[in-house]
Amino acid sequence: MLLLFSKCKKDKMRKLPFDKPWIEETAKKWPTPFHVYDAKAIRENARRLKKAFAWNKGFREYFAVKATPNPHLMKLLKEFDFGSDCSSMAELILAEKVGNVGEAIMFTSNDTPAEEFKKAWELGAIINLDDITHWDFLLKAVGGTDGSSGAPAPLPKELESHVLCCRYNPGPLKGGNAIIGKPEEAKYGFTREQLFDCYAKMKKAGVRRFGLHTMVASNELDPEYIIDTAKMLFSLAWEIHEKIGIDFEFVNIGGGIGIPYKPDQKAMSLERVGEGIRDAYAELVEAKGMKPIRLYMECGRCITGPYGYLVAKVRHIKNTYRLYAGLDACMSNLMRPALYGAYHEIVVPGKENSAERKVYDVTGSLCENNDKFAIQRELPVLEPGDYVVICDAGAHGHAMGFQYNGKLRSAELILEEDGSVREIRRAETLADYFATLSFPGSEFADIATTL
Ligand SMILES: Cc1ncc(COP(=O)(O)O)c(C=O)c1O
After folding, report:
1. Which ranges in 192-289 belong to alpha helices (H)?
2. Which residue has its alpha carbon closest to ligand 1 atom 10?
3. I need a labelling partner for 250 at 20 to 30 A (CA). Which of 91, 102, 240, 428 fits?
């Protein structure tokens, strides 16, 4: 059925930092699908974030590496002194490679293996414990024992200089965020009682530098939720200070600032969050006579999400019980729609203003029926060869890619401020896919080399 495009929808249409001729030119060198990040917009947003929190001396954003684990992007963010929030060995290594070491790393992990604690410790990272048992586990890991003797772990050197932090899970004391769910159902963090216990233990052991962390939101668009989270941590920092006698150097309110994936959603005002937390700081920290506390964040999504695009091409149009536009991209390139039913805006460059529209399921080529970028979406009339741009793919996009069904992950590019394009990750090849079959004694060891 042919539909007509309304003026109201046209006004809300997403503006891209590139056009169809740019895609045609770029695709000659980097065939679709590819991810492209808009460097200018990422920098502008980073400046805005820093400005909103400039009132807090020592404010720092630790970019959640898991959102877009590309060292080129991490390096770009380092221009703004963004640290790295790491949760795995690979992420620690990426941070180290871009020169984010020491307290430029916030190691917020869970179910953590000993070797990762050890690596984080050696890098001098801020270590954010996820559970009360992890304190002893950490001591064993960095003290070099496996704990099998049952003897208390030896205290590692430099305990006094290291910054230790605990992740608070408020449980029923904080209402659920719509996306991350109820805190009491989340596997992360300490209960209130455990938190007091652990800080007391750490103090007794000789730790002198402390932080306090929580992460209770995901893709939250209400600034008040983030402000309330900061209030909760400021109050808790005061209570722990009063009871245990420690001064917190920082509180980390985690990530979770959302982005407007849907056309009718509004971006969270970073300025409002900054002001709201400043007022809370005046009331709950300064007025109580607490020592200055640095505010830390570990956002991922709002740092790169809106500034990354998945560019793909229509491969087939199929007309059965529904109309399908099959792309050369699939959920290996962006699995949020399949995983969460997430909405991503789709733009068809060159046809943005086309009055004639049809309703499509926009699919990939994976043998899974949920491999769909959009379901029953009204779009300009599509033909094989049309380019489509899937918006807001800059965080948890390429990063979540996988190889099921022999599908390969695409290249990542940066659109520089001067208009040039830089490759920041090449596309995977079949040789990459087969590489793990190549090991001594494997019957198929040469599979990657005989392609
Ligand atoms: C511990 C932690 N910190 C930060 C983030 C980043 O969250 P977001 O990308 O929503 O800002 C996540 C995301 O899963 C996380 O688990």
Report:
1. 192-205, 223-244, 270-281
2. 256
3. 91
